[in-house]
Write a structure and sequence with these properties.
The chain is an alpha+beta fold. The chain has a single domain, classed as Trna Endonuclease, Chain: A, domain 1. The chain is built from 2 helices and 9 strands; from the N terminus they run H-E-E-E-E-E-E-E-E-E-H. Strands 1-2-3-5-6 form a 5-stranded mixed β-sheet. Strands 4, 7, 8 and 9 form a 4-stranded antiparallel β-sheet that branches. It is globular, with a radius of gyration of 16 Å.
């Protein structure tokens, strides 16, 4: 049963709470803003004797039954706020949209989110094949628990050297 268009906003809230719950399970403390003016929540964790703070925006992907195969798949659109330490969390839902958990979730650093002429920003770490979203080969480290582990690294906001750059293929 597809989700009715009038319930799409509720679906976005489900994605936010899903990501917050997974991060909470991984030991992050989650703080929701009084007013949502950009970041959906702030994730905080004590690591290496320091408090690590990651502002998080969640952009869920909800493909229609008719969606075709895509070599690159992710978020293209506006971001109301950006920050060097931010996380763009992209939960990828299956086409059946029955309230099930995402197939996979990307946790992307700010440097992996590219400005687009007239279209806001783009971050496309997944692919869509035969109705199923999955990580692209060069982006697997940003998905699910591996991605959450990367959020904990000291180099989260630093773009890797040329040997580690994510390809656009």
């Amino acid at each position: 049963m597809p989700i009715a268009p009038e319930n799409a906003k509720n679906r976005d809230y489900f994605a936010e709470l899903y990501v917050a719950g997974i991060l909470g399970d991984a030991g992050w403390s989650i703080y929701f803003p009084k007013r949502d003016v950009g970041f959906d929540f702030i994730a905080v964790k004590q690591l290496r004797g320091q408090v690590v703070i990651r502002p998080v925006q969640v952009k869920g992907k909800y493909p229609a039954q008719t969606k075709g195969d895509k070599a690159v798949y992710g978020y293209i659109g506006s971001l109301t706020q950006v920050h060097p330490e931010m996380v763009l969390a992209i939960p990828y839902f299956p086409t059946d949209q029955r309230g099930v958990a995402p197939t996979c979730t990307a946790y992307m650093p700010r440097w992996a989110i590219r400005p687009q002429a007239g279209r806001g920003f783009a971050c496309q770490p997944a692919r869509f094949l035969n109705g199923i979203p999955s990580p692209r080969r060069d982006s697997q480290q940003y998905f699910d628990y591996a991605g959450i582990e990367l959020m904990e690294s000291e180099s989260w906001s630093t773009r890797p050297g040329p040997q580690h750059i994510i390809s656009t293929q």
